[in-house]
Amino acid sequence: MALPDIFKGMTVIAGYNNRPPLSTIETHHIVVVKGAPETLKAMYESVPTHYEKTYQKLAQEGARVLALAIKEVGELSNQEIRDSPR
After folding, report:
1. Euclidean distance between CA atoms 37 and 66, whole angstroms
2. In what order do the strands lie in the sheet with 9-18?
3. 26 and 70 in contact (C-beta within 8 Å)?
4. Which residues are within 8 A (CB) of 66 and not within 5 positions of it... i.e. 6 or more apart?
5. For the whole model, what pTM was predicted?
6. pLDDT at 2 over 70
7. What is the pLDDT of residues 3-59, one digit of tens each?
8. How far is CA 86 from CA 24, 31, 54, in A?
9. Which H or E element spans position 81?
């Protein structure tokens, strides 16, 4: 049974602070998605060489294969995070 794409990934928005000397503390955010390689492939700005061939070979050998995508999204308010589409 094939799963719908919505069940083939997990998304997290994470914040981190830059604390250089003599500056304000700003929270920057990244969006991290893990999931099925075939689902995440469409999300990448550029796909690594041999991406499809590599994950398919590993899967055929019985490995559970997950892909990871990360995007820097800058500063977001708590409201902007809450209002983000799921």
Report:
1. 6
2. 9-18, 26-35, 67-74
3. no
4. 34, 35, 36, 37
5. 0.69
6. no
7. 455 545 788 888 888 766 655 677 888 888 899 999 899 888 999 899 999 999 999
8. 31, 12, 29
9. helix 78-82
CA distance 40 to 71: 13
**Cβ–Cβ under 8 Å, residues 24 and 67:** no
The tokens 């983000």 sit on which residue? 84
C-alpha span between 81 and 11 (Å, rounded) = 12
Q: Give the CA distances from residue 43 to residues 1, 54, 74, in Å, rounded to whole numbers and listed in that order.
A: 24, 18, 18
Residue with tokens 């899967």: 59
Torsion 62-51-70-45 (CA) sign: negative
